[in-house]
Design brief:
The complex is a heterodimer of chains A (249) and B (317). Chain A has helices spanning 37-51, 68-77, 94-108, 127-135, 188-194, 235-245; strands at 2-6, 9-11, 33-35, 57-64, 82-87, 112-116, 139-148, 152-159, 162-169, 172-176, 199-203, 215-221, 230-232. Chain A is α/β, with parallel strands linked by helices and 249 residues long. In chain A, strands 9-8-7-10-6-1-4-5-11 form a 9-stranded mixed beta sheet, sandwiched between helices. Chain A has a two-stranded antiparallel ribbon with strand order 2-3. In chain A, helix 2 packs across helix 5 (188-194) and helix 3 (94-108) crosses helix 4. The radius of gyration of chain A is 21 Å and the shape is globular. Chain A starts with a strand and ends with a helix. With 317 residues, chain B is α/β, with parallel strands linked by helices. Chain B has a 7-stranded parallel beta sheet, with helices on both faces. In chain B, strands 13-12-14-15-16 form a 5-stranded parallel beta sheet. A 3-stranded antiparallel beta sheet of chain B has the order 6-7-8. Chain B is elongated and about 60 Å long. Chain B starts with a strand and ends in a 6-residue tail after the last helix. The chains are: A alpha/beta (249), B alpha/beta (317). Strand 9 of chain A pairs antiparallel with strand 11 of chain B.
């Protein structure tokens, strides 16, 4: 079997983002970037399935500017076999990303596409589901446990009420939750080896799909600031404030 | 033109977040129609018909829709959506799962997780885990929108009497199968809708020590939350997690105990009306969002807190 795993390069999750003064977005210059965290889980799971012998090849793909290749190289360093970089210097909405991925799926013919459940920059939570719809494949979203069978995959999903178990036929799209696994770190020798693994480069413009963004971002602003309140001296004062001042208990 | 809202329910009862989504839907257009897809879900349709905001209920009763498998539900939603300008659902795991599939089928770019309706095509949504708010305008003719339920009041159930119309089921692909759902049972209010939430973090040091949190929660009729650190350390199950990768909560009172206040955690609770922080580290970031901060050892403060609460004559429920 073959897995296509999609990774996105985003502002590192530990960075406190800063909104631009002109309201056009957030500052990204000289800001630490890394792979979107649940995408690391998607890569880890793909590699584990390869190590189990059930999967023969793992292909990592990323769409974005040249530096998106860093996220592909990271996937290659932990065990993906080869990479595909689709270059685009401008923002593409999840709908457009899914259209590009569909083109690649038609060419590569994987049995499964793995993605993170959500990107932590635009927080859309759309790409995997959209790709599944376009391919007319079943989907397993927010997966925290995966059991790959011959012609299907059994998934435990994180839902608001607890956990849900479903089984979907292959081929399928799987989106990964942070609880799916613990992503490994790449060793230095593997990072060096990853530099020699093949990476195909294509241009988003040449994919033959309509990438016109449908959503206009009119303004980005800081959320209303919450100002720190007061420190209370002891528990009795805290309870008194909650009862008599805030009137919440 | 009108709005089509997809109801979330368990075939017996409506899930409360659908009422919040109704309020948001009514701000896009006054003509709100609700689709109930399920099996044996008559009671749900009647419940919805009672909401004064709702102008029509569409019900599709078929075993295909018992468990909201998106492969089955989406072809129905796509068919019914023909007459509508807006297709909306709540942005919880229900709406997040199926709505992008609807949007892609209609070739629409979805607007996810909105917190404000500025006009029928312009919305505010949080990005970067709520560290920025983006105002966005959808230029698609049809709009697929998911709604952050805690940002809108619940529509009131009254003596409305919307007509209930039947809709034919459509073919399903049979590519997916529901096996089981394990719901976390609790005597306490649900985390997402509780008026008070008491949360514990790594400072609790063990799962057993969460008893201190549970005791306070029981006294206040509160839900129990946790930071990701506490969940990852195995102190408590992950459905209690508050934060960017857990639940977003907006209670009247949020009490954070032994939680330092990582960005991911703040993203899930900083819209709460009143925030209390109890932490022994006076420099912990949680104090920067707290209305009332108590710098103290939680193992001493929590028993005292419970004792003080016991002294009160009345506690709001």
């Amino acid at each position: 079997m073959k897995i296509l795993v999609a990774v996105k390069r985003v502002i590192d999750y530990n960075v406190q983002i800063r909104v631009k003064e002109d309201g056009s977005g957030v500052h990204t210059d000289n800001v630490k970037m890394s792979t979107n965290p649940p995408d690391d889980n998607a890569v880890e799971e793909s590699v584990k399935l390869k190590e189990s012998g059930k999967v023969k090849e793992v292909v990592a793909i990323s769409i974005g500017e040249d530096k998106a290749q860093e996220s592909i190289r990271k996937a290659l360093a932990v065990g993906a076999d080869r990479g595909i970089h689709i270059k685009s210097d401008s923002y593409i909405e999840p709908l457009g990303i899914a259209k590009i991925l569909k083109k690649i799926v038609e060419k590569e013919k994987p049995d499964m596409v793995f993605l993170g459940k959500q990107a932590i920059d635009d927080d859309c939570n759309q790409t995997g589901q959209m790709l599944a719809a376009m391919l007319n494949w079943p989907q397993a979203t927010f997966s925290s446990k995966i059991n790959l069978k011959d012609k299907s995959i059994e998934i435990v999903r994180e839902i608001d009420e607890g956990l849900e178990t479903i089984e979907v036929n292959l081929p399928a799209v799987v989106t990964c939750d942070l609880r799916l696994n613990e992503p490994r770190f790449a060793s230095l020798p593997n990072i060096m080896k990853a530099k020699k693994k093949p990476m195909e480069q294509l241009n988003a413009k040449d994919m033959g799909v309509d990438l016109t963004n449908r959503i206009e971002q009119l303004k980005v602003e800081e959320p209303p600031k919450r100002k720190a309140g007061i420190k209370v001296a002891n528990v009795a004062e805290l309870v008194s404030k909650l009862k008599n001042e805030a009137k919440v208990i | 033109m009108s709005v089509l809202l997809i109801a979330e329910h368990d075939n017996k009862k409506l899930k409360p977040f659908t009422l919040n989504a109704m309020t948001a839907a009514s701000k896009m257009d006054g003509e709100v129609h609700v689709l109930v897809a399920g099996t044996g879900c008559d009671n749900v349709s009647k419940e919805i018909a009672n909401v004064a905001l709702v102008k029509k209920v569409l019900v599709c009763d078929s075993p295909n829709y018992e468990n909201y498998l998106p492969e089955n539900l989406v072809p129905l939603v796509v068919k019914v959506s023909e007459k509508y300008d807006h297709i909306v659902a709540s942005a919880n795991t229900f709406g997040k799962n199926f709505m992008p599939r609807v949007a892609a089928a209609l070739d629409v770019s979805q607007v996810s997780d909105i917190i404000k309706v500025k006009s029928p095509d312009t919305f505010v949504r949080p990005i970067y885990a709520g560290n920025a708010f983006a105002t966005v305008k959808s230029n698609d003719k049809k709009k697929c929108v998911t709604i952050r339920p805690t940002s809108f009041d619940a529509a009131e159930k009254s003596d409305g009497s919307a007509p209930i119309e039947k809709v034919e089921a459509v073919d399903v692909p049979n590519t997916s199968k529901f096996i089981k759902r394990e719901e976390t049972k609790s005597e306490r209010p649900e985390l997402g809708t509780a008026r008070i939430v008491v949360s514990g973090g790594r400072g609790l040091e063990s799962g057993e020590n969460f008893k201190l949190i549970n005791d306070i929660a029981d006294k206040l009729n509160a839900a129990v939350g946790a930071s990701r650190a506490a969940v990852d350390a195995g102190y408590i199950s992950n459905d209690h997690q508050v934060g960017q990768t857990g639940k977003v909560v907006v209670p009247d009172l949020y009490i954070a105990v032994g939680i330092s206040g990582a960005i991911q955690h703040l993203a899930g609770m900083k819209e709460s009306k009143i925030i209390v922080a109890i932490n022994k580290d006076g420099e912990a970031p949680i104090f920067s969002v707290a209305d009332y901060g108590l710098e103290a050892d939680l193992f001493k403060a929590l028993p005292e807190f419970l004792a003080e609460l016991n002294k009160l004559n009345t506690i709001q429920k």
